[in-house]
Fold this protein.
Amino acid sequence: MNYKLKYYNHFGLQECDPVFCEYNYIVNGIYVPAVNIHHVLFGKGKKDNNIINLMAVSYQVHQDAHNEKLNRYDLKEIHLQFMKCNPY
Ligand SMILES: [Zn+2]
């Protein structure tokens, strides 16, 4: 199963459902469309597609994550919180 499907399945989403940026939901309390599923801790080379490692993010948050403007361990905490809150 590819990682996008895995993410959708975890939250009970269909492919046409809107997906929200987890960072904006937890940190800013707003719904921003997500455009990427980011590999939070492990991504390069061997992809870890465990749900703990998969985070939906907006374009800007994704850029910041890859430019190291956002710390991956902070993102992981935000992701864990998002899974607990589960706005879907
Ligand atoms: Zn990424």
